Amino acid sequence: MFDLRLRTLLGVQRLQDVTWDDLQALLNNENAAEGPDIDYKAGPEPYKTGTEGAGEFVKDVLALANTSGGVLVLGVAEDRATSVPAAFVPVPLLDRVRKRYRECLAQRAAPYVECLIHFVPNAPGSNEGVMLVAVPPSASAPHAVTGFKDPYDGNLRYPWRNDNTTSFMTHAQVKNAIMAAMATSTARREVLLQAERDVLDSGVGGPIHVVTLVPDMPGSFTVNKASVEAFSASPRDFTWHPRHVLGHTAVGPRRLIATDAPSGGHHVAHLHTDGSGAWRSRATLITCINDAYTFSQAPIPCWDSQNLVEAALDKTTYLVRHATDTAGAAGTATLQISLNSAAPMQLGWWDEAAGAPFPFSAAACSEASGSASLLLDTAREGASDLVAAVAAALADLYQNFGVAEPEELTLDGKVNISRWRSRGREATERWAQAAGVELTVAQDRNGQ
């Protein structure tokens, strides 16, 4: 999401690392001239309060999203003749301003666009400086401003960046943009399905758990000797899997392959050059007692809910890092979690109070999948956003079994630690505290 040109100019890879000293590199720098990917606005009030100012802000954000993504730089004035940034004219860096901008997007952007807003104060403790609004390229384009001048007039206007100016699309441009978005969506869906098929065809059999991640706007990296060596030497920092679980590296067509054994084993990950990836593993089952009252019926194998959650969190974290750090992908991505077994099985959980495992789903499935969208940049830097995406994908998956959502996570990005059995609870607590994920204690399916 953080624009490549701006990263190069500032010498900083992450938006949240930009400092006031870094921004000095922009002034009077011809390479930093305003263009399709950078839009400068001088302070102290680049957008007035009220409906018209809200429409202007949303227009500028959506113009970047409808083109190729970029950064709205608030607090910098450019030379009108050359479009080169000439001076700092600071803007107020206040949470209420950030909130107002986000509300403007929620109310006036159709469809909504995710963006990151970063404050760069001009001195320690100052509430003035430069505000960076990083906008990802969007697979949901074209985005429209609803009621540019009046939010109630019902008109839709589609902005875009025409070099260093913002214009509105013509009818023909809107039509072409919609057709391009539909083609992109179809193509990326096929990429996701093919990535899942490829990884399912490798490794050992048995009940399978697969996590697949496909950026909506592809990234890129080259498979060569240097990238293979760098990948082989990169740390495998997993929370619920052993570090050696993907310790063997191989090369495939336009991808790197990581496995837990030289010839493929229980864990196989395919990491593609466009930033997409899939990691399959043999799922851990739990042998459940089918009758919670008499214990009279024969035990049955079930999908272990806690193991599914643990595996999904580790795998998604790994695939997000590949997409962002290795392939340089940004913006939104589709996350899919799938299960595959020879015979239908229910979801099961360990009831520590009863000291026994029980099935809890109404239905049994041999094949099921669930998907959700996530923003790569926030999922990479903010674990709670990643947890929320995993929870949403698992909820979509669990609904195939007649269960609304997993109880180990919440849809707003928290860990319901009361639903984790003692095995794995301590590791989960350590991870959540280190990652800044809130722990909560919520009622279980029995209201307890």
Automatic annotation (TrEMBL):
<dbReference type="InterPro" id="IPR007421">
    <property type="entry name" value="Schlafen_AlbA_2_dom"/>
</dbReference>
<protein>
    <submittedName>
        <fullName>DNA-binding protein</fullName>
    </submittedName>
</protein>
<dbReference type="GO" id="GO:0003677">
    <property type="term" value="F:DNA binding"/>
</dbReference>
<dbReference type="Pfam" id="PF04326">
    <property type="entry name" value="SLFN_AlbA_2"/>
</dbReference>
<feature type="domain" description="Schlafen AlbA-2">
    <location>
        <begin position="34"/>
        <end position="148"/>
    </location>
</feature>
<dbReference type="InterPro" id="IPR038461">
    <property type="entry name" value="Schlafen_AlbA_2_dom_sf"/>
</dbReference>
<keyword id="KW-0238">DNA-binding</keyword>
